[in-house]
Amino acid sequence: RASPRAPPTARPSGRGEMAAGCERLRDRHGARWTLPFRPPLCLACAVETLGDGGASLVRKKHALCRLRDALAWRALPVVQLLAPDERGCLCLIGTLFGKVLVQLIVELKSEQYLRCILDESQKELCKATTRRGSLPTFTLLGKLADAVPVFADILVVEHSNLVDHLLVGLMYPNEGVKAAICYLYGKLYSSPVGTEKLSAHFEERLCGLFLNTFGHAQTKELQINCLGLLKELLKSDRFVSILMNNPKPEEESENSDLLEGENPLPLILKKLLLTRDEMLQAASSHCMAAVLVHSPSRYAPAFIHADVPEFLFECLMCNSEILIWSVYCSLLLLTEERLFFSKCHTVYGIESLVRSLQNVLHLNNVELHKQGLLLFTEIVKRQPVEIKLFTNRGICIDAIDVLMKTVDCPVLEVVLEAVKAVAAFLRKDHLSSPPVPYENLQKLLEAVLKRCVDLSPPHCSNKHEVSQEILCTLTKLLVISDVSLSSGTCCVCRLAVELQSDPMAQENAFTAPCSESKETLSNFSEFLLRICDSLCIPMVMNYLERAVSSSVMEVFISALNTLFTVVPNMRDKFSKKLEGVSSLFTVFSALLYSNPALNQACSSFLCNLCLSLYSATEKERTCSQEEMSELLQKSLPQLNYTIAESLLLLAENPEPLSLDQSLCNHQHCFILLLYFAYTLGDRFVPEAELFLAIRNFLLLAQDHRDWPPTYVLRAVLYLLAVCQDKGKALDSRILDNLPDLSLVYIHCPLLLKFFLHYPELMGRFGHQVLQLWFSWEDCNRVETEEAAFGTSDQLNNTNPLLPILKSNSSILLILLDLVCSSSVEVAQKVLVALRTFLEKNEDVFVCDLLRNQFLQILQQLLVESSSVSLQANRNLPILLSLLFLVQLRSKGMRELDSTDFKLLHQVSNLCGKCRPKDIDLLQPSLNFLYCSLHQTTPCSQQRAVAVLLSNVSLLELLQKVLECTWMWSFPSEPTYLSSEDALLSSGWLLAASLLIYQHRYNTEVRAILVFGSMDFIVQFLRAILRQNFSSLLVTIVQNTAQGATQSQPSSLEDAALHPLTTQQVFSLVVSLQNLLVHKDLLLSQAVVACLETLLEYLYVRNQDVALHVASQPWHRFLLLTLLNGSQKSILQPEILRLMTLFLKYQSSNIISQKEIGQILQEVAEANLLELPEATSQALHLFLCQIQSSHCQVEPVQAQTIQTLLEHLPEQTSTCAKHQDIMYPFAGQMPLIRKVRVGAVTEVEGILNLLLLTIFSQRQTAQKVG
Fold first, then answer.
1. Is 739 strand, coil or helix?
2. 741 plus 847 within the same structural domain
3. How large is the greatest C-alpha to C-alpha distance in the chain, in angstroms?
4. Which of 711, 746, 781 lies at the terminal end of a domain, its last residue?
5. Distance of CA 179 to the CA centre of its chain
6. Of the candidates 777, 897, 751, which has an alpha carbon nearest to the alpha carbon of residue 832?
7. H-helix or E-strand containing 837?
8. What tens digit of pLDDT does each residue of 994-1019 get?
């Protein structure tokens, strides 16, 4: 402890004085020397003990440990005590040399003390008897160089003689000394000053000695310190050059087993790779990368010749992230040397790389993922075509799986590298080994595109630059990723195209001969088109709409261009899919770029697109396709004008004697681009400006009498048609001397409107344009679309001729002329158009105009043609069908004029010249005659009947047609009316009408229709079931010759019912009952009417038979079947009429009093005002029948009946109205159950016709069935 008598400023002045003072005042050094430790430490005592030569070693060690702890934990008080006394510090340094000196010097921060240490070190090295004893000195210098940055500079500048001791120490056979010296060298060369000062020293003296030491190192300590020194040396390009060009000494070339080769460094590093020590392997591969990074082409061959890549690939099977990273870096640098691939190191190591990537993906190290993918990308991209990389299909599939997993990585940078890897991987030489894994490739591409869609704007707008790089790389999946490579690195589309020329890839071997495999090239190519259409193209277009990038556009346009050849048979379909996707304006604008690659890509794409669109629309004009292809290929790359300049270009006048056709070629090329752009809906030029430019172009062509080629002229006409509404008045001169219209015709509604809109053009080209229009039109498609669209706007869009006809009815005359003068196919199409027009437009003037034209045509045909020629005329049936449609279109009752009667006369004469088998002529003719009888007033009707009945040939023909009812056979279950069915139906309808009106007007008859006995009529009705009502009438089998003697009645009942028999009556009733079971509305109403007529006839002839027939128990079952448990069926008119019939003939066993009450209750609950007219009439008859039959009804029911009768609407005339008439069209009209309800009157008329034949008592010379 400090003595109070001790001077406060006393301090030791030297080792001797301090020792003496401490010896005398051991316990009285003073409090200022005491450091606050537990136990307290007296710094003076500690120094004194260390300097005391007689102190024991244990005491010195204890004092040294306390002093070391003091410097470690309380360095500031120690420095404050020692720093003011320079001599004391020097004394302590000398005492502590080699112990805690390093830490002390660091804290003192003075170069003076560093020089002191170097001086002492020099003395120690000089007096050391062996280099082993110099180890502490080398260790101390190394630690000081590590702890004090300026120490290395002071050493090499002021104490360079110490470096000689380092060289001597490296030659000493002790690896501990060598390790310490290498460590110190590493620190010296880590300093820029040391690197500069020791540069010559390394080249002249150290390099060979260091490589020898490194090569023979056995201990890990020496190997690590050598690697540390090598790492510092490899930072200098000069040192790398010295190391890699340092040959092996000749005296070692024969005896050394380690160094085999010209350069020992690659072999030394290779040796470390074999140690299986991951730390040494990582350091070794890191040093390789440090060498190669200076110049891969210069230094890589040495490592490759030493087979270092083989061992690098083997190191990838470890779990050390540091080692894997180092190996990735080294291999990545080696890929820049072609020798790396020619020595087949990649073929050997690709499996290890794929396995490594599989393991790395489980680690949470993004940089490692990126580096591994980058290495994979470079290998598959640089691999020579002649050397197969994936010799094992399993490794190829594993590589695809790895790429799919990396594509799904959530880190954007990894996804970018993965997309690049996929683009490089998709090469024919990587995948053409059979069998090609097409399904795996499809999954990979789908995953890439879907991932890129997720990462494309606006999904990741904050990553704009990365997104652009992804899109650019993505589109390179579709084209060559680097055109400068001689190997031709291919895209996926180019891959599909190249595989088409490989028979093994098409067959895809290892597939059983009789089995179907999905892994085919055709399936892959079709998938490629679908995925590009659904994902890739929309994504890139969406990006280009936000930010135009020339690089992305170039690759994208090249991609689209390549897609034309992926699936050749889908080329036209792909071209149509580009509608609305690829803006020709965007592509055309890209031609203005100074980028030659972009210009070439755009030119090629536009050429392929235009040719594909042209071939799809002009399949029959292939001769001009070669000329167009030559024009586009030659002129498109030169068409670098703006839109305004291009429009002015069309008005330029080429020199008359100029041999240079470039101006004309540019004009024609631009017109073709405009044409195809407008067909795709891309109207990038205003219509008014375009119309003016095209007009000027045509006028110049007129002046020079030099028309452009036909394919250019077709484009010109189309553009005129498109712009006709926006342009000024048409100058008719522009189409003077126009070549044959069929050569330049384009099947387009706008072109049709263009020629028919202007009177001067319609007069010159109307007939030919309509002829061409219907020649190109698809009749079946038009009829299908007309049936599908209900509104007029939709129909006009489907058939553009309809609005033109409505605005200009004179076109109808041209169409009628086409019906007669054109081919059958064209005439049929005209008929479809006219029929649709007549159905949708109520224009009486048009109908009158058509009748006059029909009359002239028919008169001419009948005068000029014989019966044989009429039957051979295939256009005549179509003309007659149209005539019938015109007549049918005239609704309401109207007076027949002279034209109508002339038409009746001509058509009836035409029918007389036909045979029953001339169905095409007779069907529309009979329909027309029948329609003419019913759609007129009674006065005109009487005259029309007289005209028809006076035509003997018509009646004879009708006789023959009706006789065919018993001769023709019919299918058992027809779905639609056959032509024979339709003709028979028309014949019976006309015969029924003539019969009714002849009786009504008592018209004179010049011919008789003769049929067989009543057996055939009954058989006719019974056969209706066997034929499933396949016709509006049924088949009658005639088994009695005409004029045969009729059989006499066999009983009194039969005599009363003559010409019927009782058996025939019951047979007829059963047949009619069975027809009711069909529950067909039209049929049911007709059958009920027949039953009414039959019972009336029976009641007059034999009341007992009539009442017996009406009371058959089967009628009740029939009524219950019709009701079918539904009360709503009661209000059906045919059921009400049937119940009225039973009440009329007192059939109480059929409908009881209780059931009548239920019916009345149901009727009372119905809304009588909403009932249809037919139902209201039937209900009125039913209620009146209840009152008149004196049924025993309760007073409440009677009051209900009276109330219902009062509330029913007033009844109109019950005579049949022929508003909706059923006309049988062969092959078109569905079965009777699908016909409108209004047609019931005519079916009823036919059945009544048969009953009238049976029941009539007229005194007439006719026998009509």
1. coil
2. no
3. 179
4. 746
5. 69
6. 777
7. helix 824-840
8. 877 887 888 887 776 655 433 334 33
